[in-house]
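Team,

Forwarding the record for the chain on the shared tracking sheet. I've put the sequence and predicted structure together so nobody has to dig through attachments.
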Amino acid sequence: MNSSQVIDAQNLFASSQEQEWIAQAKQGSQAAFHQLYQLHHKRVYALCWRMLADKDSAEDVCQEVFVVLWQKINNFRGESKFSTWLHSVASNVVLGHLRKQKNWLQRVFSIEDQAGKSQEIEEAIPLDDSSELEELDKHIAKLPERARLVFVLFAVEGYRHEEIANMLNMAVGSSKSQYHRAKSLLKEWLSEDAALGEANE
């Protein structure tokens, strides 16, 4: 058996084990739910942190996500990967948390819309390499809130602009322009980092 066959077998076992935990959690097994928590909490926390840009809030909301998951796990029908469904739940919990914050609407919508000003076809920045994502994290946290939310949902979580527009109650063009703004700022900051690194060599 070659290495690729070993990896495929491991992935198959992991998927089968996850499905077993899901089935048991639906029957009320807290032990099985704890296994699901251990499997997914790091990525859920990362999503919360990137969207909220605040460590304490991210920890609180991450816990809230799993409370909601416990309440709603029977709604999972297996029509998509569990991780995809979980991250949809997590995104909605984070957005709900933001809407509860005082002056959230004022802060988010104080950013001037630039929809229609850019005709560029938007493409997600490839973030498959976890090291690349770690490098971006500190800059993602500095983005204006609406640009940050759009960037995380589109480039990191893979939502379409039409879906993001519905989630954030904005026009599709506004979602695209906010993504363009976030991408431009990130490229500018990363270029500054690179220049600084060269200067220090």
